[in-house]
Write a sequence for this structure.
């Protein structure tokens, strides 16, 4: 398959890593799922814990059908597509292929790129470096805002005003400052009950 054409059609994806694990963040924490991490991101968050994913050229273009076959081998029929920023690539082919096999699909995105593909659940994690596209807010089932300092709570509230009423709201401490920020977030959530706390439980459990 021609690489350029395959990437353009979504039949190839720059796969950084894929693995079967348990979701550690947000609304679906504790659910087993197959994770697909797609390489490539230009958002550039200083605190990103997967900076290796930024340069898509480092990762081989994997046939999307091969990725789907690996997912089908696992007991849990659920997949989390993350990055990098997965929406830098057309995902219609991937998403429709998963749905044909009855796989529940979860997408994690900054919202900075247009949505492609049909998804059962969209986690929008907005970044101040590159704001989400306006139309992405209404598509989010879950808003997950990373909190590195107290000022980030204001950013969280600005984003919360843009999502639909049924969207779940989560504040997640940035991992390197979690001991400092968790008490701040706890106090904030107690005063602002629409918000919930998301912790990177997989890091506490020492799993991928």
């Amino acid at each position: 398959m021609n690489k350029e054409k395959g990437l353009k059609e979504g039949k190839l994806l720059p796969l950084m890593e894929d693995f079967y694990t348990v979701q550690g963040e947000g609304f679906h924490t504790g659910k087993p799922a197959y994770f697909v991490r797609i390489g490539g991101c230009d958002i550039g968050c200083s605190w990103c814990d997967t900076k290796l994913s930024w340069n898509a050229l480092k990762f081989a273009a994997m046939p999307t059908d091969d990725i789907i076959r690996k997912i089908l081998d696992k007991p849990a029929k659920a997949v989390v597509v993350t990055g990098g920023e997965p929406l830098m690539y057309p995902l219609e082919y991937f998403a429709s292929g998963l749905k044909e096999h009855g796989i529940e699909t979860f997408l994690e995105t900054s919202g900075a790129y247009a949505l492609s593909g049909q998804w059962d659940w969209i986690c929008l994690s907005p970044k101040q470096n590159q704001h989400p596209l306006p139309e992405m807010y209404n598509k989010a089932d879950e808003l997950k805002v990373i909190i590195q300092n107290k000022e980030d709570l204001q950013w969280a509230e600005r984003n919360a005003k843009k999502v639909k009423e049924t969207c779940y709201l989560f504040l997640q401490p940035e991992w390197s400052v979690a001991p400092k920020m968790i008490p701040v977030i706890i106090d904030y959530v107690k005063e602002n009950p629409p918000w919930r706390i998301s912790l990177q439980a997989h890091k506490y459990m020492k799993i991928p």
Summary: The longest strand covers residues 12-22. The mean pLDDT is 96.
